[in-house]
């Protein structure tokens, strides 16, 4: 009999490969439009507009774009934290100061540079928007598998708005999960916020 945890990880890996293939096939125009729509949806949300601190991320080319939202938050005077990868596989956080404060990180991913605020800075964000590949209506998120955000989610204080960001067609009924995977109540898509269920 196989190890159930290995079976879940295998199912996740297969889903990741499928989603990444589909994302790579999306036209650039669709991704740009999705980023603009995400911004409009997020900035229409009262809890976002009232936030003092938002934790966001710099989107990869295949993801729904976060640049318009980043610019809108900055223009509104809302402090925005962006993640920086650490060697211990945790995320540190840097306050966004503008596009000129970016550098190539150790894994080839563009990251902000500036004073590091520590992993706990995440827990002080009123709004946290997390990248995902799929969001399940059962409250589970499929990430890229490195575990960086799982470690940050363990530090999250109760309250505030927490949402996984995906394309509208990446909401599915359920996502394979393990006991340590953090649940989500919301997904942010270009079409709006979607309520997700608890496990």
Main attributes?
3-stranded mixed sheet, 5 helices, alpha/beta, Rossmann fold, 199 residues, 7-stranded mixed sheet
How many angstroms separate the termini?
A: 26 Å
Number of helices: 5
Helix content class: 25-40%
Strands, total number:
12
Cα-atom Rg, whole angstroms? 16 Å
Oligomer: single chain
Summarize model confidence as the mean pLDDT: 87
Classified in CATH, the superfamily is NagB/RpiA/CoA transferase-like
Major sheet description: 7 strands, mixed
Count of folded domains: 1
Our estimate of the beta-strand percent is 15-25%
CATH topology: Rossmann fold
For the biggest β-sheet, the strand order reads 3-2-1-6-9-11-12
Mind telling me which CATH architecture this is?
A: 3-Layer(aba) Sandwich
* The level-1 CATH class: Alpha Beta
Could you give the topology of this structure?
Blueprint: H1 4-24, H2 28-43, H3 46-49, E1 53-55, H4 67-75, E2 79-85, E3 91-95, E4 102-104, E5 110-112, E6 127-131, E7 134-136, E8 141-142, H5 148-153, E9 161-165, E10 171-172, E11 186-189, E12 192-195
Parallel strand pairs: 1-2, 1-6, 6-9, 7-10, 9-11
Antiparallel strand pairs: 2-3, 4-5, 7-8, 11-12
